[in-house]
Amino acid sequence: MKIFLSSLVLACFVSAFGRETCISDPPKEEAIDGETAKQSEEIQFAISKALAEDAEVNVAVNALIAERRLQSPEKKPAFQYIDTCPKKLNYITGVKVHIGLGDVQKCYVVHPFSQRVTYASCSPSSCYEASTFKSRCIRTGWTRLQFWVWCPKCGFKLIARWYPQCCSCYRWKYCFQEANEELGPAKS
């Protein structure tokens, strides 16, 4: 058994030079920090009322919304391509925020659709059609988004979080599979 494990480790090590590295498992994706549930009318009313009472925050929120509306003109590529990892953008409507000494409170994103606080969801299916590789779409393009939230206990806060905005195809070979290819077919 020790010889087998040693040869397996050696095969993985040797295969790492000049070729793709074998891995034992695909990357684990972190949970998204936030909720996507629709905000209740009661919460939306409380946010609107608080915005009406705080003119400075209202101006800041509107400035951020105006900045997010700016879009560069998209240049379409001259070639056709197939997106093997289509994404679905989800809007963050609530997050947990540290508001003091170890105190965490659920806060609500102010106008989540206008502030464009989004993260990408990827298809769980295989994205690379080859029998020699395993593949899966994973979230990529992590972007730091600043946005305004309203907390029932402490009011408005400008916070920043990292959220993925894209999906990319990730392919890999298991070390065991690659070791078998290195050693060749078993002889009886």
Describe it.
This protein is α+β, with helices and mostly antiparallel strands. The chain folds into two domains: 1-23 and 173-188, no CATH class; 32-69 and 84-171. Helix content is 29%, strand content 30%. The protein has helices spanning 2-15, 41-53, 55-69, 112-115, 175-183; strands at 87-91, 94-98, 104-109, 118-122, 134-151, 155-172. The protein has a four-stranded antiparallel sheet with strand order 2-3-5-6. Helix 1 crosses helix 5 (175-183). The longest helix has 15 residues, at 55-69. It is elongated. The two termini are 18 Å apart. Residues 8-18 have low confidence and may be disordered.
Helix and strand arrangement:
Blueprint: H1 2-15, H2 41-53, H3 55-69, E1 87-91, E2 94-98, E3 104-109, H4 112-115, E4 118-122, E5 134-151, E6 155-172, H5 175-183
Antiparallel strand pairs: 1-4, 2-3, 3-5, 5-6
